[in-house]
Inverse folding.
């Protein structure tokens, strides 16, 4: 079966001056992948007619499907809609369904009073040569064009609007229109091993992979994801083959293996706690609430996560976590003694089964010779046992915060697994 | 003066299946912009020789400078280095300086014992037709090629390594090699107004802008950034012109204006607190530590931010913040009464000048008719006064967390400004 290829074109000067980070492309790529469409290229261009047209011309040669996001808002820097109308030789007409929907949104959802602006109503004007994709979540509709056997879909750049349109309108229509090969992925999450050492350990296995399978190494804050991808026609056979290879890979990587699913470290922790009907609370100094955020960003967090004390200030460490003045004075906040007391404070004050604590120097200021920037103490424990570990991370602040958080969650999941053996 | 254009090519299958979000391009674009280089396009391609070569061929026609990231790691899915070597007609040679640096990193920085892997040492092999850019932060060096008056720079994809190379090696070299026009940006941060209403309010001004100035609207979680860009040759004149226009724009947008700098909402709060030598603490339920994270992600947070109680569980609200059982039973956790008590709890227990509290339903579960998903109460206060507000956000969980956090910080900065008049 012929591979179906797509290109994603994102539009907006803000992408080219680096003011916004493009998260839309990753989401679109994931959605397309699920239905067997391979994204071959992604292009970002500015709010500039010539550059957008050039991208359309070129990508129609590279791909079967061209997905565009951005450039559909109500303001003057948005030029995509009239451009597409011209590009495909149509003319603008008012769409009654979109018109009604915009009225509904403004009155019932946004709860705005007063007359609507002409620039908002103009969002109901669409090219007469496209299929309109209704955008439940916003005023700018999606647009589906076809030309010379290629499909062009234009979506608004607001992430949650684009997401709704992708899932409700775009994917189902693409599934109807194209015959896709099967693309299967399986991912293993490892921690505590470098990419090179891992590659060395699985070298013979990787070299013997059949040609329709491909392994990717995805390093991220001390974790390495191993993603094995298989492409073919026969889904059942492909699944079996993939499963067979994954069993071998798991055996080869077992000493670093966290889980054989594409989960985040916090999702692994949540899964373990849920299975065991246990709870955790955290005490964070240097991570400043980031671990709490990781533990609450996924739905359903409330049943196993109780709370956090972010004790940035030493007085808060004393008052809310019972850390002793003596420890703070003699060994300082970044010490084994203080993180141990922080764990005890959480267990006592938040009444959780497990507690996790961090204290360190994230930079760029605050380090000294004995306690350099990147030095971190982490403690994890329960009523019976507390384990501690010293880390030395490097370089920039945000990266140190993320590395510390992942290392802490990795210690926690290991501790939970060991306690319940 | 001729505009100097760049293209960024990012390499890696992980970008095309959506497993990683490309943050490198935004950073590179910002750095290039600072020195007057305009990024015209950004391309992402897979770990595939044909696609990378095609991108190189095409982009050499579009731009003066082609920056590549990714594909330089030690594992088998990294193919960029030999490809570039062939593309520019060179051959691989071992670079002694890189070789020594890799040894130094493994022994002194990574603190690894045992013999080094051949695949790591191979990172010291570089094309003989490039200038090697030393990578202080990692084993893969950057590479600088020149051909037909164009510059091609290849950088590793690990963000902090790429960042170090951009700032220390690439930007200074580009500044020497090219004559750049001046590109100036100034940004206003507004809050609490839709893109359309704002556009309507400044319409006449925007239409009268000279041709070398351009305004962009950058909406983000209830904020809209207005970025005015001016391009020209005479820096002093351009600065004066930009300043003149900005004064007019500030007057037109004054009712929604937060600050006339390109700051985040948390940076505005930190700035106000620093000027006033005051402190804040937060009590978070639904935001789960995200406000704490925002307040601590920038350096220097520790002087004005004391801490946070993330009270996800009602027992924690009672024990650590003094929220009453009676309020939780009668009106529930998501209520004006409870967020007011949470603010009082912070002021009392964390001893801060200001306190901020959130409680709401972030979804996708947990809503009901009286308290739907997206309903949030926020309270802000000091010893004299507490202000509360009810919000209704919509749609997905992570977006609700971010919107709530920004709205809370916006309330806080307004409260601080009002108290100190």
């Amino acid at each position: 079966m012929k591979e179906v290829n797509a290109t994603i074109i994102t539009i907006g000067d803000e992408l080219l001056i680096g003011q916004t980070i493009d998260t839309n492309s990753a989401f679109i790529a994931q959605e397309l992948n699920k239905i067997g469409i391979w994204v071959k290229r992604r292009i970002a261009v500015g709010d500039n007619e010539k550059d957008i047209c050039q991208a359309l011309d070129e990508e129609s040669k590279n791909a079967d499907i061209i997905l565009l996001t951005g450039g559909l808002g109500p303001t003057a820097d948005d030029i995509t809609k009239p451009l597409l109308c011209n590009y495909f030789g149509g003319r603008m007409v008012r769409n009654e369904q979109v018109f009604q929907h915009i009225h509904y949104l403004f009155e019932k959802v946004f709860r705005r009073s007063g007359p609507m602006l002409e620039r908002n109503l103009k969002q109901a004007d669409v090219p007469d040569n496209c299929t309109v994709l209704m955008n439940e979540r916003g005023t700018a509709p999606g647009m589906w064009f076809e030309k010379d056997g290629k499909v062009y879909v234009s979506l608004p750049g607001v992430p949650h609007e684009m997401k709704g349109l992708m899932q409700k309108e775009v994917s189902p229509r693409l599934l109807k229109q194209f015959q896709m090969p099967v693309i299967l992925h399986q991912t293993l999450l490892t921690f505590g091993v470098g990419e090179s050492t891992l590659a060395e350990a699985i070298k013979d296995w990787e070299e013997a992979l059949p040609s329709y399978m491909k392994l990717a190494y995805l390093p991220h804050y001390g974790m390495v994801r191993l993603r094995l991808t298989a492409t073919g026609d026969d889904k059942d056979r492909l699944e079996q083959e993939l499963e067979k290879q994954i069993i071998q890979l798991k055996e080869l990587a077992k000493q670093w293996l966290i889980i054989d699913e594409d989960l985040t470290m916090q999702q692994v922790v949540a899964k373990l706690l849920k299975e065991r009907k246990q709870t955790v609370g955290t005490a964070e100094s240097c991570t400043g609430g980031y671990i709490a955020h990781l533990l609450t960003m996924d739905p359903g967090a409330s049943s196993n996560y109780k709370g956090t004390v972010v004790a940035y200030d030493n007085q808060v460490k004393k008052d809310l976590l019972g850390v002793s003045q003596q420890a703070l004075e003699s060994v300082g906040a970044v010490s084994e003694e203080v993180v141990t007391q922080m764990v005890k404070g959480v267990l006592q004050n938040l009444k959780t089964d497990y507690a996790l604590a961090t204290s360190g120097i994230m930079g760029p200021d605050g380090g000294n010779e004995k306690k350099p920037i990147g030095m971190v103490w982490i403690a994890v424990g329960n009523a019976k046992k507390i384990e501690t570990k010293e880390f030395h991370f490097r370089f920039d602040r945000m990266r140190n915060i993320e590395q510390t958080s992942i290392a802490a969650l990795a210690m926690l999941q290991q501790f939970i697994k060991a306690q319940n053996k």
About this structure: The mean pLDDT of chain A is 92. Chain A touches chain B through 110 residues (CB under 8 Å). The first strand of chain A starts at residue 5 and ends at 11.
